[in-house]
Every structure is written in C-alpha cells, then in structure tokens.
Amino acid sequence: MPKNKTHSGSKKRFKITGSGKVLRERAGKRHLLEHKPSTLTRRLSGNAEMAPGDAKKIKKLLGK
Q1: 31-36 contact pairs (CB < 8 A, 24+)
Q2: Tens of pLDDT, residue by residue, the chain (64 residues)
Q3: CA atoms of 20 and 54, how far apart (whole Å)
C-alpha cells in the first residue's frame, strides 16, 4: 500500500503545535509595506490560530 504524501504547499504555510492547534501567518505583510500604516503592519505580525473548520482540512493535508 503506498504512503500518503504531505501537501508541500501546506507544510510551508502552516505549523501544528504540540497540543494540536494549527498556526498560520497573517496575510498582507509580504510586500507594498511602504504605504501601509505601521499600526497595520504591527497588527499583522505574529501567528494566528486557524478556525476549527479550516484546521481540520489543513491537518488532513499535512497527514496529521
């Protein structure tokens, strides 16, 4: 029986914590930052937890 492969796009974007939560980066902090206010860029920094419905799908893609 062949093994299931991890979705390579997902493994670059998401991280699963020890307790099983799925963490993601916030969108909008990659480029064109010069015209965005500092308050916005600070708010977008750090990781966010995935919504429960989406987290289930991500775990399946990561083979967890």
Answers
A1: none
A2: 899 999 999 999 999 999 999 999 999 999 999 999 999 999 999 999 999 999 999 999 999 8
A3: 13
3-state helix, strand, coil in the chain (%, to 5): 40, 15, 45
CATH number at residue 38: 4.10.410.60
**Rounded Cα gap, residues 47 and 16, in angstroms:** 12
Residue 14 is assigned to a structural domain of this protein: yes
Q: What is the pTM of this model?
A: 0.83
User: Domain containing 22: what range?
Assistant: 8-62
| Site of tokens 């390579």 | 8
| Beta strands, E only, the chain | 14-16, 22-25, 47-49
